[in-house]
Amino acid sequence: MKDAVHDLPGSSIEMRVANSVGQRQPENFRLSYDVLVLDAILRQSLVTVRSLGRRGLLVAAVEATNKLEGASSLPAFSSRWCQRKCIAPSYERSTEPYLTYLEQALDRTGARVVITSSDGTLALIRQHREQLERRAAIALAKESALEVAINKDRTLEIAAQLGVAVPRGVQVASVSDVPAALREIGLPAVVKPVESWLWSEQQSGRLTCRLVTTADEARRAVEELIRLGGSTIFQQFLTGSREAVSLMYAHGEIYACFAQYAKRTHPPLGGTSVLRQSIVLPQDIGDQSEHLVREIELEGYSEIEFRRDSKGIPYLMEINPRLSASIEVAVRAGVDFPYLLYQWANGDPIDHVQGYRVGGWMRYLEGDFLTTLQTLSQRGRPGVAPPVQAMVDFVLTFLKPMGYDYLDWGDPLPACTAMAGFVCYLAKRLRRSLSEG
């Protein structure tokens, strides 16, 4: 690859500036961008592009893929606020091409801040942070805090020391440890990776938690995670409401906090929220979240997830030290976390947000549709609604006033792009099912 930086045709704002003034700019003319937003495929990246673009900042977006033809299906690239769109080589097999690309992109755009939203790019940046910070500010907490936040074992250990309730759990180092874990935790249970992203010489990828209801399922889940190179936790299964607190913390001060309730997630266990609502900050998880980020010294944005038990007691699930997929519900409620994160990373004064609108709903329609379909294949499993109830709930949700991910009447193209991409996905699934049938 002679040139690791691929700009999509017509994506450079320099071209549009030249056209707008009706004359050719000097050959050495180059705008300096304010921010480089990674992981353009993600919903939170689109929210970030819109948030910063509306405030007059010049935004460039990046996605890693080896398929250039798929770039047109990325909603963030369709946004009117995305002024430069770049395709990087995938980092899942080798990080070096992506790293080289990222350095070249920073040199060409002059971006002062880099914002990442995925476990994969977060892990890559951590490996090469000193090298990248010579070019731009990285909108992530310091390394000592990240080491705790992304490791569930260390997170839960510190939480327990602070008096925060954590689910009963044991480490499982091999399949032979499963019988003892079953005796201690029981079934159903959750098998979780200690860290969500795997780096190895053979492969890399995101590891997810698994709900297990039988001893055979438990052994298979543990065996797979260990085979991939992950460490595992065997943890009790909680069925209460899922709530999360998002914080902006810096310089020993909380600048903003926000709470949300996830009614439905995809997948049903531990997935991203597909139907969520802004709620009044509960005092219990609000205080616990603040104590945790202060203890860890986790500056920047973080989302702290809790699950309540049948008695309403909140248990800490995990901490995400990066912008989360559900961030738009906070932005629409009046807490613009992407902009606060930019202010902090750029060294600007950070706005204090004193409150937000409560009761607003947000829906990720594609994820909600897939979650509803999953109730057919997961019928009868713990935490999964009966199929008929799930389908009725899905339809009735259309009658409730709410916002939809991607849909913004002031920036309509991303929603059209997302819809077209989902239709193509369904068509491919249908063709595959018919060919296999």
Keyword list:
alpha/beta; 16 helices; six-stranded mixed β-sheet; seven-stranded mixed β-sheet; 437 residues
Task: Briefly characterize the structure.
The protein has 437 residues and is of the alpha/beta class. Helices cover 38% and strands 22% of the residues.
Describe, in plain words, how this protein is organized in 3D.
The protein is α/β, with parallel strands linked by helices and 437 residues long. It has helices at 13-21, 43-54, 75-78, 96-109, 119-127, 129-132, 143-149, 152-161, 178-185, 215-227, 283-296, 327-333, 337-346, 365-377, 387-396, 413-436; strands at 6-7, 35-37, 59-64, 84-88, 113-115, 137-138, 169-172, 189-193, 197-199, 204-206, 210-212, 232-236, 242-250, 253-266, 272-279, 300-308, 314-320, 361-363, 403-404. Strand 14 (253-266) and strand 15 form a beta hairpin. Helix 14 packs antiparallel against helix 15. The model is unreliable at 1-5 and 9-29 (pLDDT under 50).
Low-confidence stretches: 1-5, 9-29
Strand content: 15-25%
N→C terminal distance: 41 Å
| Number of DSSP helical runs | 16
Structural class designation = alpha/beta
| Averaged pLDDT | 89
Radius of gyration: 22 Å
Largest sheet, in brief, is:
7 strands, mixed
Which strands sit side by side, in order, in the main sheet?
17-16-13-14-15-18-19
* Shape call: globular
Q: How many strand segments? A: 19
Percent of residues in helices: 25-40%
Topology:
Layout lengths: L5 E2 L5 H9 L13 E3 L5 H12 L4 E6 L10 H4 L5 E5 L7 H14 L3 E3 L3 H9 L1 H4 L4 E2 L4 H7 L2 H10 L7 E4 L5 H8 L3 E5 L3 E3 L4 E3 L3 E3 L2 H13 L4 E5 L5 E9 L2 E14 L5 E8 L3 H14 L3 E9 L5 E7 L6 H7 L3 H10 L14 E3 L1 H13 L9 H10 L6 E2 L8 H24 L1
Parallel strand pairs: 2-3, 2-5, 3-4, 5-6, 18-19
Antiparallel strand pairs: 1-4, 7-12, 8-11, 8-12, 9-10, 13-14, 13-16, 14-15, 15-18, 16-17
Helix pairs in contact: 14-15
